Amino acid sequence: MSDASEKLAQSGLSRSVGIVEPKTARFSEPLALDCGRSLPSYELVYETYGQLNDEGSNAVLICHALSGDHHAAGFHAETDRKPGWWDSAIGPGKPIDTDRFFVVCLNNLGGCKGSTGPLSIDPVSGKPYGPDFPIVTVKDWVHSQYRLMQYLGLPGWAAVIGGSLGGMQVLQWSITYPDALAHAVVIAAAPRLSAQNIAFNEVARQAIITDPEFYGGRYADHNTLPRRGLMLARMLGHITYLSDDAMRAKFGRELRSGQVQYGFDVEFQVESYLRYQGASFVDRFDANTYLLMTKALDYFDPAQASNDDLVAALAEVKAHFLVVSFTSDWRFSPERSREIVRALLASGKQVSYAEIESNHGHDAFLMTIPYYHRVLAGYMANIDFASTPSGLSSPVYSTGGAV
Amino acid sequence: MIRPDWHTVEQWITPKSRVLDLGCGDGALLSHLIERRQVSAVGLELDDDKVASGIERGLNIIQEDLDNGISDWFAPMSFDFVIVSQTIQAMRHPERLLADMLTIAREGIVTFPNMGYWRNRVQLGLLGHMPINRALPNPWYNTPNIHLCTLSDFESLCSELGIEILDRAVVDSARRESALLRAFPNWFGEHAIYRIQRKS
């Protein structure tokens, strides 16, 4: 144990994975993408927590959501104010127990936290990709994640786990590489976006694209950022991640100064919160990546290739599923999770489904809700490493897939 | 702990069959059937604590309110047996469940506390109060058991719904067999256990 992690342990954070360091995997074999283009070479930044066992059968992949990254748990430095985005669930003795599992989390392609994306240098032009970075889909991500699995020398995953857009990657994994994972945990997700979901994404995109500082995505060339657009997009996002109840409980109609000012400055606490969330997001996220991620969401539709029949799309699935939804989540409501569960049942698959009572909206999937964590921990504890794929069978490739 | 009706249920379940338990509680019966009959099992349960217990046992549990209907969840004839153990008396529409369950599976197994059991009759008929005992432990104002029935009530409903009764067993809480029990099941059976199917 390093001095730093000892310190963390002493400071009462003993259930943390401690100080972690991101690593980079380089891939020089081209990756063919759904959009028809291909990435000649690329890098994926990832973190791992826990120890891989001798058989390599205890590996778990965590897939991140819209604005997530590879830093799912622990701290990068002792001075970090906040741990990784899913530290509530990943760590020693936590539902995704790092005393038992070897946990891998990566930043997806097109991201802005180190993996190849719009901020990276295009080897062809020698300049950052910017808006020229190809549109990536959930399926493209899964192909790249499969390559990361091979790079790490893993025969397969004991489980692939994700919430929201991460849950969609899990679903895609089970369909595209049925022999590569034993368990699939799909949290607060949907089998595809509704028109309303796409509409919210489109407003977010328009906010960014119509910002005068956007310059067709080449804002870096102009030494600027579409600050207002990205901020608006994030503010809108935050409204859809929270529930009416959660907002009422958190802010009510509380005024910052105690009385109304009859003006357009920040008056209500909720305005202050949204502006803060929006403004701080601009400093840590790239606008082109935000556009790409929302498109990946919009395009996700694994049933499309099977005449919109999700049951048929799931026919080859071998993984056992845990599907979880939250009652006040209106971005991806429980009904959307039920669609997944019903299709799995109709397809004769093994599945458990828990509907968690919560007023936190879509954001609930990141929170420590006792029943939620009990279900997740209970499911994970029953994973038998003997059922983890041994890596002997070949993956199922579909059109546009990487080979 | 083995509940009094489990032994009979187990006898009726074919080994290696597909079993759905509606209102499966903490999944103890399903675990028992997996162990004894090697069934492939799915349970439906509403209560958070019980759902979590079932998942902790490694079972496939779907969290759902049975009163919302089950035909949305399961394809016709996707199971061999549907079990409704000590649950129909707590449902808003037991008659809908009975009809629905036999579209999902070939055979149904239904168990419930018999309101016609002599102790219940004595408590209501002679002492003049709602029964409170081992099988019906809750006071009338705070009980999940809102649709109690006797063997004879249940059999009339089956007949109305076009349901055939294949087997009937009655037990008391100690699982004792007796001549009295066999001769007067609606008097001496504390729990009723039926095996049913749709009339062909």
Structural class of chain A, by secondary structure, is: alpha/beta
Rg of chain A (C-alpha, Å): 21 Å
Biggest sheet overview of chain A: 8 strands, mixed
What is the β-strand count of chain B?
7
Note the total helix count of chain B. Answer: 8
Order of helices and strands of chain A: HEEEEEEEEHEHEHHHHHHEHEH
Largest sheet of chain B: 7 strands, mixed
Q: What is the string of SSEs of chain B from the N terminus onward?
A: HEHEHEEHEHHEHHE
DSSP strand (E) fraction of chain A? 5-15%
Query: Can you give the helix content of chain A as a percent range?
Result: 25-40%
Number of alpha- plus pi-helical segments of chain A: 11
**Total beta-strand segments of chain A:** 12
> Tell me, what's the shape of chain B?
globular
User: How much beta of chain B, percentage-wise?
Assistant: 15-25%
In terms of structural class, how would the helical and strand content of chain B be classed?
A: alpha/beta
Low-confidence stretches of chain A: 8-12, 393-403
What does this structure look like?
The complex is a heterodimer of chains A (403) and B (200). By secondary structure, chain A is an alpha/beta fold. Chain A has 11 helices and 12 strands. In chain A, the strands form 3 sheets. Chain A has an 8-stranded mixed β-sheet with strand order 1-4-8-5-9-10-11-12, sandwiched between helices. Chain A has a two-stranded antiparallel sheet with strand order 2-3. In chain A, a hairpin with a 5-residue loop joins strand 2 and strand 3 (38-39). Chain A is globular and about 65 Å long. In chain A, 50% of the residues are buried. Residues 8-12 and 393-403 of chain A have low confidence and may be disordered. A 7-stranded mixed β-sheet of chain B has the order 3-2-1-4-5-7-6, with helices on both faces. In chain B, helix 3 links the parallel strand 2 (40-45) and strand 3. The longest helix of chain B has 11 residues, at 94-104. Chain B is globular. The model of chain B has no long low-confidence stretch (mean pLDDT 93). The interface between A and B is medium-sized, with 21 and 20 residues.
